[in-house]
Amino acid sequence: MKGPSVTSESVIPPAPDFEPPAPPDPEIRAQAQARQVLLTKPSGSLGRLEELSVWVASCQGVCPPRMFQRPRVIVFAGDHGIAQGGVSAFPTEVTAQMVANIRAGGAAINVLADNAGAGVRVLDMAVDADTDPSVSAYKVRRSSGSIDREDAMTDEETLRAIAAGRAIADEEVDSGADLLIVGDMGIGNTTPAATLIAAITDTEPVAAVGRGTGIDDAGWMLKTAAIRDGLRRARSYTRDAVGLLRTVSGADLAAMAGFLAQAAVRRTPVILDGLVVTASALISEEFAPGAREWWVAGHRSTEPAHTIALRHLGLEPILELNMRLGEGSGAIMALPVLQGAVATLAHMATFAEAGVSDNTGVDAEDHPAVDAEDHPAVDAEDHPAVDAEHHPAVDAEHHPAVDAGTGSD
Ligand SMILES: Cc1cc2ncn([C@H]3O[C@H](COP(=O)(O)O)[C@@H](O)[C@H]3O)c2cc1C
Ligand SMILES: O=C(O)c1cccnc1
After folding, report:
1. Interface pTM, i.e. ipTM
2. Are 166 and 261 in contact (CB under 8 A)?
3. 221-275 pLDDT, tens per residue?
4. Its pathway (predicted)?
């Protein structure tokens, strides 16, 4: 993926050189796992909150972890030529109108971010209109190409978009962001997103296509055909992340990929959103292998390709709310869950502090009432608080942060 590759069409420049991200801190992870067991509750009783709290501590490199002080939502906006092909239920001009709506505070993401205590920033990467200078500083072009028959952008534009995403991540982290959420806004963007996911995971167009903004059956046929044509064009680039972005994505998706990779390089945790953001995340993991250790999936979108992408990344979504909006709206709903997880590990009393009896003196043989077999929750050894094996939702391989067995390696 790194060296220049020669194709029949062009010489593809090397992928941007992201530093390999270091994993979240394994020592802190072990400390956090050990602390979870001391808190005044049966081990494992806080379910997935325990694993999430351990993950946050290991990302922050500190135990107990800190509540997030400056969570930020960054919405990457862009138009797509394919939107002219009947693949969306809405017209292209909605993208610029929604960028203005987000700036004015009236979109779903604004009210949900307010509710969760996060700031929102929207950026025009490729909107097919002139937008306010406050959002267009990184604009790459007006609309990306129609991916069924032309490249989304040039190599130079692709690299510029990736670099923009990277610079934006640096800006956010440098100004104190301690949790990042990526959102998308762009009529037609679920078509390139589904195409990217299908190309990377070798999925048939009919299995990857979804209803997006709510297309009817005629739109579904057009969208499936567009994904099929895009996949045909992307065929030679399935092992070339920059080539894939150039052929079948858009400047907005390329910027998200750069942003997500750099967030990991900067050791900043991310909550992923739905289909569009997760499509970019697949590319980002190619740029910066291991970046996914810094991400959690906020929710499962109803878009079928989202589930395919999550499976590929080994991520289990926190929420399932039947949402299919984008903008970062699903991810932001998971922020209170993450804050709750942090609060438990940071602020609960331990058994010793509260003078509550723990179960270390309880012997299953002497006390048949609390027989380990009937009450597995009291058997600390067989049920480590965050044991990936007993919680298959959590993928130990991809998320060593939650693997109690390898906590100290
Ligand atoms: C008013 C409105 C607000 C949105 N906010 C996010 N999307 C989402 O829907 C669009 C993608 O779906 P498709 O590929 O079917 O066009 C993107 O703009 C995405 O951000 C919206 C769509 C609309 C219409
Ligand atoms: O899941 C998403 O990201 C999504 C779904 C529908 C429309 N826009 C975005």
Report:
1. 0.99
2. yes
3. 999 999 999 999 999 998 899 999 999 999 999 999 999 999 999 999 999 999 9
4. Nucleoside biosynthesis; alpha-ribazole biosynthesis; alpha-ribazole from 5,6-dimethylbenzimidazole: step 1/2
Per DSSP, 24 falls in state S
Q: Which residues contact 162 (CB under 8 A, 6 or more apart)?
A: 16, 242, 245, 254, 255, 257, 258, 287
Q: Which of 327, 365, 381, 397 is catalytic?
A: 327
Residue 92 CA from chain centroid, whole number? 25
Per-residue pLDDT tens over the stretch 85-115: 999 999 999 999 999 999 999 999 999 999 9
Domains of the chain and CATH, by start: 71-332 (3.40.50.10210)
**At 205, which amino acid appears?**
P
**327 catalytic per annotation:** yes
> What stretch of H or E contains 55?
helix 48-60
> For residues 114 and 332, what is the distance between their CA atoms, to the nearest angstrom?
10
DSSP assignment string, 313-374 = HT---SB-------TTHHHHHHHHHHHHHHHHHHHPPBHHHHT---STT--TTT-GGG-TTT
What is the value of pTM for the model shown?
Answer: 0.88
Distance 7 CA to ligand 1 centre (A): 34
Closest approach atom of ligand 2 to CA 301: 1
